[in-house]
Amino acid sequence: MKTQVLVLGGGPGGYSAAFRAADLGQEVILVERYPVLGGVCLNVGCIPSKTLLHAAQIINEAQEISSHGISFSDPKIDLKKLKKTKEKVSKQLNTGLAGLAQQRKVKVIHGTGNFTSATTIAITTDQGVEEIEFAQAIIAVGSQAVKIPSFPNDDPRLMDSTDALELADVPKKLLIIGGGIIGLEMATVYNALGSEISIVEMQNQIITGCDKDLVRPLMQKIKQQYSKVLLSTAVENIEALDEGLKVSFSGENADEIFNKVLVAVGRRPNGHLCAADQAGIKIDERGFIPVNSQQQTNVANIYAIGDVVGNPMLAHKAVHEGKIAAEVIAGHKSQWQALTIPSVAYTDPEVAWMGLTEIEAKAQGIEYDKGAFPWAASGRSLSIGRKEGITKILSEKETGKILGAGMTGTNAGELVAEAVLALEMGACVDDIALTVHAHPTLAETFAFAAEMIEGSITDLMPPKKR
Ligand code: NAD
Predict the structure, then answer these.
(1) SS3 annotation, 251-301
(2) 137 close to ligand 1 (CB < 6 Angstrom)
């Protein structure tokens, strides 16, 4: 077989690259090792976790509304049905993708690809091995969960995120190793379903990389809800016993037995898994494939995108990179120019941020103004029974230009979009403050944060000028 463009990997980055290339007139083959398109995100990641998080939100809200005088009896949880719903959502999406591939005449081959040269790849399918010759290729092979070798990884009670999303049962006591986004989102799900949650994080903060003030409302909430949130603590050993997994921690903490343990300590790139070296492609020691701003590897006709080219490992980054690679292949002068990639933890409350963080501003010696608006002063937030949120903006001292922003609270993941647009459009805080935001909305907290910097806030006392 021969093709103009070969895309290896059918996750959000890979299928976006394949579809964009086809739309730009290229003949495309898309190779995916699993029987469906959509990759980790659509099948065992972002989408199924959001379906479960929606269920968690309803369970939590049904309890919280008792503060408004409305009481429901305890929920009856039909785990099988919840699992089916989750699978139905993924199926609807991956069936849609198969249809879109067909409409675009993108040939999809389900098999595992290994490069044999800079213009050929061997695909192992159920029917055998087939070699494809390509003019250009896009590698979109993603990443996989990091495993800790000393743990009893063959024990089904030790889970990674894929296992946890399987929802085999609701363990009485669940330990989550890693206070990153995956760990915290799965904690949100299992806590709502009834597990007693403990979290252990090696660093001195959950969601490292995000500013402490944004993480604080989440930290305060989970400290009350969960059995334990251990920071600056490592798991030293896990012993598989009949009655559970016995976990030893560093420091003063006593050993404890858990019914299940979820390991969510990060993901590593799959760069070494497609024989990229046979094509002469450089792979760094961590498994990442270095690329230039046009997603080109050191081999001119081979591009790489998504998790395999570097952090952050986020679907929305992969999609943008995929489109750039496809456009460059089709002769367009595209390159990566996005100023920021937003991050969202779909926890309860949600945490979202973009652009410069205070951690980075301080490390880089950047002078900034900060406006922070507490949601306790937001009528909308109070009316939905939540007062713990915060919206903050960092702006350039000289010009007022937005440098970064973040929000924690209900729907923060939706609200961050305005901040990203503001940054991309080069908006200043006065642009935001003078933009009429509908009242009462959570979105208006972004304008209030801008007014905190401007000193024009009336919903609170203006901060004293520094
Ligand atoms: P992560 O890197 O975000 O978090 C892992 C955490 O585990 C870190 O805080 C780290 O300090 C801690 N850790 C590492 N080793 C440890 C150990 N031995 N003991 C205790 N703690 C340890 O990784 P993740 O949460 O596994 O997520 C993986 C990737 O998937 C990330 O790139 C993430 O951005 C992405 N993801 C994103 C979303 C989203 O956008 N909502 C959702 C899920 C995953």
Answers:
(1) CCCCCEEECEEEECCCEEECHHHHCHHHHCCCCCCCCCCCCCCCCECCCCC
(2) no
